[in-house]
Amino acid sequence: MKHPMVYAIVIGLALLLALITVIMVPTAPPGASPTTQATPKTVKIGYQKTVLYLPIFVADRRGVFEKLGLKAKLQRFESASDMIDALVGGDIDATGMSALEQVAKKEAEGPGRLRMFLIEGFGKEPWLSSDYILAKSNSGIKSIEDLRGKKLAVRSGKTFMMYAEIILKKKGLIPGKDVEVIVVPDDEHSIRLRLGHVDAVFTFEPRATQILHRGEGYVLEPAVLARFLFDEPKTIFPGAAVVTTKFVQSDPETVRKLRDAIYEAVDFIKSNPDEAKAILGQYTGDDQSVVAKMSLIRWFKPTDVDKEEVQNLVSLYHRHGVLDKDVNLRGSYLTDADLR
To answer: What average pLDDT does this structure show over 100-106?
Structure first.
C-alpha cells in the first residue's frame, strides 16, 4: 500500500518542478529570435555638435536604432576631416554627415570606396538654410556691398574661402582688395564680432543663432550658398552621410537597418520640427531658447536628390581649386541593389 502512494508523491513533485521550470524560462515575443534580442549589432557613427547631424540624434533619442536591432555608438569628432579619415580607416562604421568635397577627395583616392545614403540640402529660403552673413550690431551695414573696406570672418579651409570669394564677386567686390577676408575658427566668430575685430561673419548654425540670440549681430544675408553660388538660386547639396563599400559588402543587413533608422528619423523631423529641435539641444548643449529659433535644413534620400546638381557643386569645387580633379560621384550613392 505504501508503494503506490510514494510513486504518486514522486510523480507529483516531478510535475511541479517541470511547471516551475517552464514559468521561469524567459520566452521571446512572437516573431523575434532570442539571439537577435540578446545581441544587437553595434554601429559606430561619427558626428559633430551641429544641426547637420540631427537625423542621427533623433534616431538615437527616440530608440529607432534599438527598434531595428542596432546599438548605436555615437563618436564625436572636432574635425570633419578626421571623421571621414576614421571612416576610411575602419574606426567608425558611418558618418552622420560629411562635407561633399571630402567625400569627393576620398573617392578620388580610391574610386568606389564610399556610398552616400543621405544628402543634406541647403535651400534658398531662410528657414531651410543653415548659412548666414551676419553684420555687427550697430555697424550700419545694410548690404553685402557695404562690406567694402570692411573685414569679413570665414571658417578655415579652402571651401569656405571659395564660398566667400564667389559671394563677394557676385556683389562686385574683390576679396583682399575691397574686403579683407580673415580666417577665424568657428567658435571665435561670436567674440570677434562682439569685440569689433571683424565687421561681419560668414557663419553657420548653431553659431548664427547664438550670435543673433545674444544681440551681437544681425542678418545681413540669409541662405547665401543657395542664393549666390550659382547663376540662379537653387537648393545645393554640400554634404552627405556615408558608409564604406566594404561595410556594405560585408554586412548589407546592418547597413540597411542603419539607413532605414535614419530615414525614419528624417520623416519624424519633417513632421515634428519643434520636437526635433528639442532633441537637437540635448546633443549640442545649446540652450533650448536658442535651439527653438534655429533653421532646419532638409535631408534627402539618394532617390530624391538631383544628382546632377550634386555633380555641379563638385565641378565648382574643381574649378576653384578645392579639388584637384572633377570627381564623378554619380555612382557613389547607396542603392537597394547594394543591399541584396
So the answer is: 97
Q: Which CATH superfamily is domain 130-222 in?
A: Periplasmic binding protein-like II (3.40.190.10)
pLDDT in tens, 73-90: 999 999 999 999 999 999
Helix (H, G, I), strand (E, B) or coil at 327: coil
Q: In the CATH scheme, what is the code of domain 35-122+235-339?
A: 3.40.190.10
CA angle 261, 262, 265 (to 5 degrees): 90
- Cα 11 from Cα 52, distance rounded (Å): 67
Give me the residue label for grid cell 539641444. Answer: 281
Q: How, if at all, do strands 200-204 and 151-154 pair?
A: parallel
- Maximum alpha-carbon separation in the chain: 115
Residue 194's Cβ-count burial label (10 Å; 0-12, 13-18, 19+) is: middle
Angle, helices 54-61 vs 273-284, to 10°: value is: 90
Cis peptide preceding 206, ω within 30 of 0? yes
For 260-275, the DSSP string reads HHHHHHHHHHHH-HHH
pLDDT band at 31 (very low <50, low <70, confident <90, very high): very low
Any idea which of 112-116, 229-233, 263-267 has the lowest mean pLDDT?
Answer: 229-233
- In angstroms, rounded to a whole number, what is the distance separating the alpha carbons of residues 179 and 151? 6
**Is residue 189 scored above 90 in pLDDT?**
yes
pLDDT tens-place string over residues 126-151: 889 999 999 999 999 999 999 999 99
